[in-house]
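Pilot study result, target chain (353 residues):
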Amino acid sequence: MTLLLPTFMVEKVKANPNISVSAERAVLMDAESGRVLYEKNAYDPTLIASTTKIMTAIIAIESGMMEEKVKVSKRAVYTEGSSIYLTEKEKIPLKDLVYGLMLRSGNDSAVAIAEHVGGSVEGFVQLMNEKAAWLGMNNSHFENPHGLDGETHYSSAYDLGLLMAYSMKNDTFREVTGSEMYRSENREYSWKNKNKMLTQYYEPTNGGKTGFTKAAGRTLVTSAQKDGMELIAVTLNAPDDWNDHTRMFEWGFDNFETVKLQSEGTVEVNGQSLYIPRDIYYPLTLSEKDDLQATFYRYEQEGDSNLAGVTYFMVGKTPVVEAPVWNERPSQSFFSEVKNFLNRMMGVAPWST
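Predicted structure:
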């Protein structure tokens, strides 16, 4: 039996957004489909400052070590920049370090996480670059877990959008990044989230990460959810980033709606039962909805392949989504094997137990 998972062919939005941003580089992306709704130099690699810590956090969360105690090293304590004021030889849960990383942007926390999860900072950086390659972050390279400037430490607005969209599919990450306050069991005071989009400026915000160095400028990644649509906004070197994000979100929510293109289940095509393996949602403007078409192309059957064909969803003559159609629904055990395989690939399940 041949397995083909849905492949998305996402085109850049053809709308003419009546918005401007202060950022040198920016992107607005639909979290579900990955469609780029707006972009400005979004694919150019550049310094990203502490938005790096999104990658550090998701690797730590997926490691399965969140309840383990971390012994803080001298290297972590003396890391320059923003800090949660760890002390040498202090023992603190990895979970608390992840909150300190995401809410207070602790560089000391980033190094402590890296040493515990990766065995060393250098080992953890290798994990970061492997994850970036797996996610298709083609204009990214990491050399540290905190985001301090480095010659080979860079990403793009688009790549950071991919990373945030992926990370927001993890329930623990969503809980961490969406928290306004957190108190570590090692502290007598609470940490307040630095992301003012979440705590102050824009009510639909449900996550994100701030960043700043003199060379990178102000960097910001945020997510927001409204009327069943979740959007990711990224700005790099943006003097007016809070307003940039608010404008992009409002434009996106005002001009797009999430449309269900197909539903999982069995359908009849010319008297034959075929199986659609998953629901597909996609953001469209009102005019795009009017121009939406779907065409099914049947494949010639070869051997024991379960692939019946492919459905192409088009807006006018522009393809937006390609989705496989199967001859029959695979067995539940087959689905379980596929799910376990994907979980291992994404780092949320071990290869052996």
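One observation from the pilot: Residues 161 and 232 are 6 Å apart (CA to CA). A full batch analysis is planned for the follow-on phase.
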